[in-house]
UniProtKB/TrEMBL annotation:
Organism in which the protein naturally occurs: Fibrobacter succinogenes (strain ATCC 19169 / S85)
Extent of the signal sequence: 1-17
Keyword terms: Membrane, Signal, Transmembrane, Transmembrane helix
Residue ranges crossing the lipid bilayer per the database entry: 461-481
Name of the protein described by the UniProt record: Oxygen tolerance
Organism domain of life: Bacteria
Keyword Membrane: yes
Pfam families linked: BatD
Length: 607
């Protein structure tokens, strides 16, 4: 019975063979050529047929057309279908081959429209020919790009850069950033990219895309500035290779062929960005220009205008704007010589709002009037350059009139002794508190014992021995106390003394993060530990400094150039690893921790 069925399958023929469109390749690669075949059974060819026309679109390029008659043989699917009423044997057909070059864009795309002139009229064979274009295995499996929100800005103006990643079907993972430095010409606020969201590309289900703002920057000088290339490494699937193997079995040799694809570790990078930075205009520049560039708001006010001597007066100043991230200069304050003041309180915050980093600064100035009177406080102004309006703007607050009255606080109670009779003078004035103290300190009079004057202590040898020993002891104690007070009053010495202890705490935090698998906390501990250690050793705040300022400051203190470069390299590495979607093994992180510890040991000489 089985033999009969197989015989039937082999003898059944295609009775109703139809024209069809197909490509000659299982994989069409971007930028490569392929053939689109229009297959027409000979018996289906029209008598009065004309030319075939292919109108391409979506950057597909038509290169040429060939035709030939071929014998078409059914595949196993055709034979299986023939069992259910189709056809099965070979037939002769005219094959029209369109040579086409695929576009660079990947994904499923419409190749174009195929028409055939029959009897002088255009007959549409297919109005839409979907073709799946895939990336070559020789090309990068990861495409990265960096796009600025503006390419031409003013010095000090804020702009953002967007990082985009596109993975293709032969991308295998292992993504790691090797260099994401923005250079030394910008003040940077980096975004947290740890939750970068990859989504499928429409029309290409094996491709993924992700995009997010990487950082907000502000140039520190004018001219043509460059953001260097961001570099990444990852793993991809290599080009298929045919491998031939020969085996010997029982005196006979056999050969086999197989296709293998190996994983390859490779690198890719973004194109460097050129930013044109314009200098600020000199026309209309206010004399008290703050140096801020952006859109700002300014307000200032006193908490009251009437007070008494001894009471405090608070001046509250608030400044907010979208200029240099994390930086706002102070306004010029009036002359407060008629008031006693204490160091002001400053608080500065930055927050991403919309597409900008908004920096706000609050200042509180505390003033104490020295005397009674009426004081005129002139207006306080604040100026900035608005790049959107291309002009300088100024905001003003005040003036104020401050009324200060004499304090009516009660005086300290005083005890006045009665006037002595006949003299007209009084006894010294004694405070009430002194009376209370004296009352608790009254000593009783004791009778003098009958002791010989020869028992006086100064006539004893032991007295002079103890007296002589007390002098050096006093000098030693006095020296120790003086040194401790001097050391405690010297902030730099105190910070240096605590530098190693605080560094060990940071490294302990890094080890805890490493143990918990928290990469973000690990690199944050390394970065903060290195910066705080430098600050404690030198008594200079390195937080908030640009890289050039940091290099210059370390160079002044005699740090070697290679050590400075190592510090800069580690800070950059920790910074971009914290904010980029990267992976690092536990072994790599352990090695990084050891390297930073070794670097800190080399900085001991700064002490």
């Amino acid at each position: 019975m089985k033999r009969f069925l197989l015989l039937c399958l082999g003898l059944t023929a295609f009775v109703n063979a139809k024209p069809s469109l197909q490509v000659d390749s299982d994989r069409i690669e971007a930028g490569q050529t392929f053939n689109l075949q229009f297959i027409v059974p000979i018996q289906e060819l029209p008598q009065n047929r004309g030319a075939l026309r292919l109108e391409t679109r979506n950057n597909f390029k038509f290169l040429g057309l060939d035709s030939a008659d071929q014998v078409m043989r059914p595949d196993m699917d055709d034979i299986f279908n023939s069992f259910f009423g189709g056809g099965g044997r070979a037939y002769k057909a005219r094959v029209y081959s369109f040579k086409i070059k695929a576009p660079k864009k990947t994904g499923t795309q419409d190749l174009g429209t195929l028409t055939w002139m029959i009897g002088g009229e255009a007959n549409t064979i297919s109005s839409k020919i979907p073709v799946s274009v895939q990336r070559s295995y020789n090309d990068d499996a990861l495409a990265v790009s960096l796009t600025p929100s503006k390419k031409s800005i003013y010095e000090g103006e804020q702009f953002s850069v967007t990082l985009s990643l596109h993975t293709f079907e032969h991308f295998q993972g292992g993504l790691q950033a090797t260099d994401m430095s923005t250079g030394n010409d910008f003040i940077v606020h980096r975004n947290d990219l740890s939750n970068l969201d990859f989504k499928p590309v429409e029309g290409a289900r094996r491709e993924m895309k992700a995009s997010a703002k990487y950082a907000w920057l502000s140039p520190t000088k004018s001219g043509t500035l460059q953001i260097p290339s961001f570099k990444f490494k990852y793993t991809k699937l290599g080009e298929p290779k045919v491998v031939e193997e020969k085996k010997q079995m029982g005196g006979m040799s056999f050969s086999s062929r197989s296709v293998k694809q190996e994983s390859i570790e490779t690198e890719t990078s973004t194109a460097p960005l050129s930013i044109t930075v314009l200098p600020l205009p000199t026309e209309g520049k206010p004399a008290d220009f703050s140096g801020m560039v952006g859109n700002y708001s300014f307000s200032a006010n006193f908490d009251r205008t009437n007070l008494k001597v001894g009471e405090a007066l608070t001046l509250a100043i608030s400044i907010k704007g979208d200029g240099t991230p994390g930086t706002i200069t102070d306004p010029k304050l009036p002359d407060f010589s008629e008031f006693r003041s204490v160091p002001p309180e400053n608080s500065i915050n930055k927050k991403v709002k919309g597409n900008k980093v908004i920096t706000s600064k609050d200042i509180k100035v505390f003033l104490y009037p020295k005397k009674k009177g009426t004081f005129e406080i002139p207006a306080i102004t604040y100026s900035w350059f608005n790049p959107a309006k291309k002009k300088y703007e100024t905001a003003s607050a005040g003036p104020w009139t401050i009324e200060v009255e004499k304090s009516d606080a009660p005086a300290e109670p005083v005890y006045q002794a009665p006037v002595s009779a006949g003299t007209g003078t009084s006894a010294p004035v004694v405070q009430k508190q002194e009376i209370e103290f004296l009352g608790s300190d009254i000593r009783f009079i004791h009778p003098i014992t009958d002791k010989s004057e020869t028992a006086a202590p100064h006539r004893s040898v032991l007295f002079w021995i103890l007296f002589a020993a007390a002098i050096p002891f006093y000098l030693i104690v006095n020296f120790a106390i003086t040194r401790k007070r001097k050391r405690n009053s010297n902030t730099a010495l105190v910070r240096k003394g605590k530098a190693n202890k605080l560094l060990k705490e940071k490294f302990a935090n890094a080890r805890t993060a490493l143990k918990n698998g928290d990469g973000k906390a690990f690199f944050a501990a390394l970065e903060n530990g290195l910066i705080d250690y430098l600050s404690n050793l030198t008594n200079v705040e390195f937080k908030g400094m640009t890289r050039p300022q940091m290099k210059q400051e370390l160079s002044k203190r005699g740090v070697k150039e290679e050590t400075i470069e190592a510090i800069n390299s580690w800070l950059e590495k920790c910074s971009f690893v914290r904010f980029a979607p990267v992976t690092a093994s536990t072994e790599e992180q352990s090695q990084m921790l050891a390297d930073v510890e070794k670097l800190c040991e080399s900085l001991e000489k700064l002490k």
